[in-house]
Specification:
With 450 residues, the chain is an alpha/beta fold. Among the domains are: 4-143, Rossmann fold (3-Layer(aba) Sandwich), CATH 3.40.50; 149-274 and 294-332, no CATH class. It contains 17 helices and 13 strands. Strands 7-6-8-9-10-11-13-12 form an eight-stranded mixed sheet. β9 (366-376) and β10 (379-384) form a beta hairpin. α6 (149-155) packs antiparallel against α7 (159-165). The radius of gyration is 23 Å and the shape is globular.
Length: 450
């Protein structure tokens, strides 16, 4: 299966400024498979060490001598000699032996010729532990989430359609016939989701029953891990919040609505645990007056999105026969917001930590909200995930009116063919372009701007 991270690892392998690489992401998003496929593309030896197993070299870690440890690992595999330039040492499930992470510092300082990758399904709990000694400046990160829509198309052997997505623009629009084909695949992606195992099963069997079985298994796996999560969090509280988040997408998160009668501190810690596990992502409120967006964010004012749209559909109990082409019509638009949120989290350099932002203005008798805010060059760009005529987008008009720095354009996602129209804010006289795109083009919105 194609993942963008495979290309990243390929480039990392040959980069002279390379540091040991830590891959971060939720369980079962394809971290281990991606490393395996990257090694195959590079045509190099992959020495994979699962740290859930017993290994003699672990007792040597305190000596901070990476070359002797790599030699010991190789010898245990029957390799009497090897070329460091043609090998990747891959430490998996690193949370089982956290001391391997500080050891990466010495890999960088004493043995830079070695290619070292590390990951783990619950690694975030180690990295965010207050007493953990982290090798700052000696490692680099690669973040992974579920498969995007284009990666899904590659995964189900529709590579030609995936390649075609990259070519569209306002001057080279998608045809109505092709648009309908993409909408059908968008519909199947909504149910299948981007978890690699579910995508593979759909490709191989075309059975929605088998897809549903895989997704339920993934959900059960997450719940089985709850006992390993943040020690200060209540396992039952985590379980309740886990089940509630997919039902509250797109709304401001209120602790009391996640666990009825639950103490705020209990719910907060449960949500923090799920965020650390990367099962949920927070979309944080920001005033949006300028860049960076994080400058004016309010950490106690946020919406919450789930890891994967296919898993959301399973929690909601929705199957393919309940899914129309128009995502905005499902669950009052919550599924469409999940689709866009999931892809905006991926809309970054892969070494950057994913983050979502939105804007809201509460005034007595009315609430104005922009679903997401993003950045384009030196501009803050509003994103709406709604249907309706341009003139009826009252929240967008309010946002434009209130901001001293006016955005040159706004994005809107719906099921229509791509279009751009000039909109006048009557109160300010400011004109901006409203670019409307189908959801499946969210990965390539910049092509329609540029």
């Amino acid at each position: 299966m194609y993942r963008k991270q495979i290309d990243y690892i390929h480039d990392w392998f040959y980069r002279k400024t390379r540091k040991p690489l830590i891959i971060r992401g939720a369980r079962q998003v394809g971290k281990t498979t991606t490393v395996t496929l990257a090694a195959k593309k590079l045509d190099v030896e992959l020495i994979a060490i699962n740290l859930e197993d017993q290994h003699s070299f672990l007792s040597e870690i305190p000596k901070n001598d990476p070359r002797s440890i790599f030699e010991l690992i190789a010898l245990s595999r029957g390799m009497t000699s090897f070329d460091p330039e043609r090998v990747i040492f891959f430490f998996d499930e690193a949370q089982e032996h956290p001391e391997i992470i500080p050891f990466l510092r010495y890999c960088y300082e004493k043995a830079p010729e070695y290619h070292v990758i590390l990951t783990g399904s619950l690694l975030e709990f180690v990295l965010n532990s207050p007493d953990f000694s982290f090798p700052v400046g000696r490692i680099e990160f690669l973040f992974m989430g579920p498969m995007t829509f284009s990666e899904y198309l590659y995964g189900i052997n529709q590579g030609a359609l995936a390649d075609k997505l990259k070519t569209f623009s306002l001057t080279q629009p998608v045809s109505e016939a092709l648009h309908q084909i993409y909408l059908q695949h968008q519909r199947t992606y909504t149910i299948t989701g981007g978890m690699p195992e579910a995508v593979k099963v759909y490709r191989d069997t075309q059975s929605w029953l088998e897809v549903a079985r895989i997704k339920e298994s993934i959900l059960e796996t997450y719940q089985a891990d709850f006992g390993k999560y943040y020690k200060r969090a209540n396992t039952d509280a985590i379980r309740q919040v886990f089940k509630k988040i997919p039902l509250t997408l797109g709304n401001k998160t209120i602790y009391s609505k996640l666990i009825e009668g639950g103490r705020t501190e209990t719910v907060k810690k449960a949500l923090e645990a799920l965020e650390l596990a990367r099962v949920v992502s927070l979309c944080v409120h920001t005033a949006g007056n300028g860049l960076p967006l994080a400058t004016e964010q309010k950490n106690n004012h946020f919406k919450t999105f789930f890891l994967d749209i296919g898993l959301v559909m399973s929690v909601m109990g929705l199957q393919i026969d309940a899914i129309p082409n128009d995502l905005n019509s499902i669950a009052s638009g919550a599924i469409a917001e999940q689709f866009i949120a999931q892809h905006l989290l991926d809309d970054r350099e892969l070494f950057q930590k994913p983050q979502l932002y939105y804007w809201q203005r509460q005034k007595q008798g009315s609430i104005s909200e922009i679903d997401f805010l993003t950045r384009y060059k030196n501009h803050v760009i509003p994103i709406e995930v709604k249907s309706g005529a341009a003139g009826s987008m009252k929240s967008l008009q309010v946002f434009i009116r209130l901001k001293q720095e006016k955005p040159p354009f706004a994005l809107r996602f719906l099921e229509n063919l791509p279009e751009s129209k000039t909109v006048l804010n009557k109160e300010t006289g400011h004109q901006y372009q409203l670019i409307s795109l189908p959801h499946y083009l969210v990965e390539y919105w910049r092509s329609f701007v540029e």
